[in-house]
Design a protein that fits this description.
- The chain is mainly α.
- It has a single domain, classed as ABC transporter involved in vitamin B12 uptake, BtuC, CATH 1.10.3470.
- It contains 14 helices and 2 strands; from the N terminus they run ααααββαααααααααα.
- A two-stranded antiparallel ribbon has the order 1-2.
- A hairpin with an 8-residue loop joins β1 and β2 (139-141).
- α5 packs antiparallel against α6.
- The chain is globular and about 60 Å long.
- It is found in: Cell membrane.
- It is a multi-pass membrane protein.
- One of its GO terms (molecular function) is transmembrane transporter activity.
- One of its GO terms (cellular component) is plasma membrane.
């Protein structure tokens, strides 16, 4: 009887555990939906939440309202959702396979590599131009796909080099982070040199690209980011138990039959793929991949059944919140989204560094 009662208590405790985590994910989903609706309602022409919902449900006959909602605001909101999801997923997986809480696209040099690629495209392929007038309002990208391709290649180069060194030299995850920091410095220095030898028009275009903007992606770009992120998520979620095993250490994971080396290589490649794709289309967006996984981990722990979807949902919600701030802090001006995410993420990054230093 005691054994049966113990098994029932264990089963009840496990059900309570999963129910609590599932409710948390539901809360994140509702938060992301609310932030999306709120973001759709904010703009130069005010639109109450009730009107937004009615228009989305097809209950409004106002043609101008539908045009504003679906053609002007919806692409920006969808971009925030998919980019936040991509960066948060990438950060979550990078932190798992590298076993380092500081790992993300911005700390591994993916963002800096993408910025270098964009600078090369703007200067040497003449992909950016500026008309007369204010530098920010008059900058256009004459060949945006060249920028996207080279920014993507620049972001991928960083991780390819890191993975190559890890495969050939067998470096530890900590060393991989340091290699990422070194590559970040190298790409940042190269970008600075390109700016130094460029004219004012080119420099303005480079700086404007690095600010980050959710208004650059169209429907095709949004679909591409979403598809790559979704397919990568399927792979990540399929390996959720392997990631859980790796939380106990590499040797423990290997003893449980986890193909650790292959898992690290494929996971890092896919994580870099989705983050580089997102950054290539919208510019440098810092710290979302660092913030979201840590905030979710505080609630659900290191159970990747909940950590992966939770990170994706919170990443989308945080990106929507950052976009909302960028459009409301100094109306009608729109602040750079990259600056907003940096202000949100830098304090947490500093906290993690200090916390890690205390443990040592």
């Amino acid at each position: 009887m005691k054994t049966v009662r113990r098994e029932e208590n264990t089963r009840t405790g496990y059900q309570r555990y999963t129910r609590r985590k599932a409710l948390f994910l539901l809360g994140l989903l509702l938060t992301a939906i609310f932030m999306a609706l709120l973001s759709l309602s904010v703009g130069s022409s005010g639109m109450p939440l009730k009107d937004v919902v009615n228009t989305l449900l097809g209950r409004s006959g106002d043609a101008s309202m539908r045009t504003i909602l679906f053609q002007v605001r919806m692409p920006r909101v969808l971009t925030a959702v998919v980019v936040g999801m991509a960066l948060a997923l990438a950060g979550c997986v990078m932190q798992s396979v590298l076993r380092n809480p500081l790992a993300s696209a911005s700390t591994l040099g993916v963002s800096q590599g993408a910025s270098f690629g964009a600078a090369v495209a703007i200067v040497y392929f003449h992909a950016g131009s500026k008309a007369s007038g204010n530098a920010l309002s008059s900058i256009t990208f004459t060949n945006p796909y060249i920028i996207v391709i080279l920014a993507f290649l620049g972001g991928m180069t960083t991780t390819v080099l890191i993975l190559f060194l890890s495969k050939v030299r067998g470096v530890s995850p900590t060393v991989m982070i340091l290699v990422g920091v070194a590559l970040s410095a190298m790409f940042s220095g190269a970008t600075t040199l390109i700016q130094y030898f460029s004219d004012d028009e080119m420099v303005a275009s480079i700086v404007y690209w690095t600010f980050g903007s959710l208004g650059r992606a169209g429907s095709e770009e949004i679909a591409l980011i979403f598809i790559t992120s979704l397919l990568s998520f399927f792979y990540f979620f399929y390996n959720r138990w392997n990631y859980n095993a790796m939380e106990s250490g590499v040797q423990t994971a290997k003893s449980l039959g986890v193909p650790v080396d292959r898992l690290i290589l494929v996971s890092m490649f896919l994580a870099t793929l989705i983050s580089a794709t997102a950054i290539a289309f919208v510019g440098t967006i810092s710290f979302i991949g660092l913030i979201a996984p840590h905030m979710v981990r505080k609630v659900v722990g290191s159970d990747y059944r909940f950590l992966l979807p939770g990170s994706a949902l919170l990443g989308s919600a945080l990106m929507l919140f950052a976009d909302l701030l960028s459009r409301t802090v100094r109306t009608p001006a729109v602040l750079p989204i990259g600056a907003i995410t940096s202000f949100l993420g830098a304090p947490l990054f500093l906290y993690l560094i200090l916390k890690k230093g205390k443990r040592r």
